[in-house]
UniProtKB/TrEMBL annotation:
PROSITE patterns: TONB_DEPENDENT_REC_3. It comes from Novosphingobium album (ex Liu et al. 2023). SUPFAM superfamilies: Porins (SSF56935). PANTHER family: PLUG DOMAIN-CONTAINING PROTEIN (PTHR40980), TONB-DEPENDENT RECEPTOR-LIKE BETA-BARREL DOMAIN-CONTAINING PROTEIN (PTHR40980:SF3). InterPro entries: Beta-barrel_TonB, Beta-barrel_TonB_sf, Plug_dom, Plug_dom_sf, TonB-dep_rcpt-like, TonB_rcpt_bac. The keyword Iron does not apply. Belongs to the TonB-dependent receptor family. This is TonB-dependent receptor. Residues 54-160 form the TonB-dependent receptor plug domain.
Amino acid sequence: MKYWLSVGCCLAALASGRAHAQSSPSGADTADAQPTDIVVTGYRESIEAARDAKRDSAAVTDSIVAEDIAAFPQANLSEAVQRISGVQIRRDFAGAVGNEISIRGLGPEYTQVTINGQAAPTNGEDRTFNFNILPADMFRKVEVLKSPTADTDEGGVGGTVALETIRPLDLKDRLLAVSAGGNYNEITDKLDPRGSLVAGGRLAPNFGVIGSLSIDNFAAASQSYDAVRWTRSNLDVNGDKVNDYNDVFVMYPRMINERQDVRRISASGRIEWEPTDKLTILVDGLYTNFRQDYERTSPIWNFPGGKTVKDIHVDGSVVDYISFGSVVLRSENHKTLRQTEMYQGSAAAEYKFGDWRLKGFASKSRSTQDSEEFVYFGDKTAAAAYDTRDDIDYYEIISPTNIADPAEYTTSEARRNLINTRDDDFSGGLELKGPAFPHVTLKLGVKYRDRQRTRERYAVTRTKINEPFSLIGDVLTGFLDDEPGAASGPHAFAISDFDKAYQLYGSKLDISTGTDLTNFFDVEEKTWSGYGMATYRHGPWLANAGLRVVHTSVTSNGIEYNKGDKTSTERNFHSEYADFLPSLNLRYELTKGLFLRAAAARVMTRPSLSDLAAYRTIDDANLIISAKNPDLKPFRANQFDLAAEWYFGKGGLLSAGYFYKDIESFIVTESVPFEYNGQTYELRHPVNGNNARVQGVEVNYQQPFTFLPGPLRNLGIVANYTFTDSSFRDTVSGTTLAYGLPENSRHSFNLIGYYEDKDLSLRIAYNYRSKFLREKPNEQDGLKYRSAYGQADFAARYKLLPNLALTLDVLNLFSAETDEWVYEPRLTDGRFTTGRTVQFGLRASF
């Protein structure tokens, strides 16, 4: 009821003011395309603008264009980009907020992200970009480049996501757009404010400025019945010291309540000046401050470590019911504060001489993240049983312990972890372009890039506290109260009060004594690239061909730590490699509106920066060396595209395409004998391993129903379907496994229906992806899957006055839930409920 009351109170959103933007096709031939003036004033017009950009590009691209300045189709950029065929998003559990993008069957680490043409800094240990740190209303356009060109920066085997803000001289009039509203999540039952301001335009015929400010606060949560893992166990039921069951799966159950409270402040600005008719100067700046308060609380029962089996039922290889005389129950409580700051500044100057243009540019960016985590544990040992026979998703726990009473537990342990990361990036270059022959434009360029990633980690733990948990205890209530499958409970459990726990334990944990040298690294990556590309445009033909040559130099500094004598030694490594990346894109207009496409390219993605770290750990007791590998080489791939596209009517599109990627040297973990100090150790480290193959089909259809009578002519549809097949072979614990690549769903589709007239715009969008492997398997956890997931979202815009409108967005309209499992669906690994999120606002534009 509270959800529908909130919807009724905030039926709302921003009106589309009118902005005139000059749009030219993105991708390889941006500078060589024929520019056209597009007026984007509504959702239908934005679809048409994106369709035209796809048609006019030589490369294989798809894009999303904002309905209006600061009025993107979704509040979250990744939620918007998932509407593109071949794109899938990863959602974090605390509210299932979309935050990372996969393209064509490859995980987020193979997706390159640029902002106004320059690489975006990241804050994770790999090269994955978190879209949650940027507001959608800051951007005018998002383009997904699926086939590269020689002038596209290397790094995206999956593809490149290019984010663009508006150039001020593209605006014919001055603009002021103001929005204010809120975010409401039904699980947290919290209403948070949000707002944005965009202002700018031409201050003079040859000088323009535009700036934006966005403030966004939101809370999101998830609740789940979960399993830490299913452990293979040998069980002696009758106590005769002979196993009655061998290698059976025993559940390690837990229940999880997760929550995040986010505050995001972002600002951007662009200055464009044409001091003469031959010289253009463009200066960009972007800043974002992202603060995430994250909490996770859980009761966990250690059944795999239970003692004295009282009763048991085994179905095949799965223990679906077991009762122990003694099981450790643990209240596990995490609180993490992540503070991320990102800025990017760039300057470019372009000089025209005759028909040629010379451009110089420089860009500097930095992303820092400080993450501090406190973990508190309360323990209780008692008899307990689990039963999954009636419901594998909402299993039953039987125990005399009142898990909601803090007095039942004893505080056992407190931890404090601190991780600091920094990503610095500088790039600069020159580009020359102009007509070389009739119908042929030539583009030449050179670019230098210096990127440095550092990480420091500190960890300290206090054990054997053995004090009453009630000193820091609290009770979580209302857990899954509205979930019918969880009716048998429990609906409450004991957790820590984080403020009390910090005062009593956390503040006394001296982090300076917990230097974790094996998790320190400093990796610097320098690249020189040069490219040449020719674009041919004549008659029915549009084509480009080029070569990009890249030299990469890696310097890695780290620590070797010996567990036995607790000594540390500095390690330094240097490696170099070169890549030759040819590309070809062809587009041929068979008849008016019917195009055939073909593309081929060699692409690459460099290894995770954390995998390139120089640290390693020596375990003399077990003769094991655990290490990273600074000598890793990139993932390289040869890829091909074939497509047919029919552009019909005003805004109509029907297309089908086939893509294929042959990927070399996937990184896997290798265990091999290694001679060290005269002894043979087992070396465990990442290496370039087996190849993988990805292929698939994309189908797109969109059409406004303008041919229908009366109000029906305001209806329209956008639909796409992607089939992606992948195969990979890996060796885990001596066993060769063949499986699809992680993060890849074989089937995904989008279906969007909309209605739009001069005052009202309505949209309902459904996104579906089939099951997928969550990550590469390991010996402990095996093959971990996430089940098929479909989510419907609703959006409404109503114009109250010519310059004033209401907006309403409802995410996860039908409260879709997420399931995870290991090996087979009956080995449940989690069922997550995230609820709906309502976003509403009022917008004025002048």
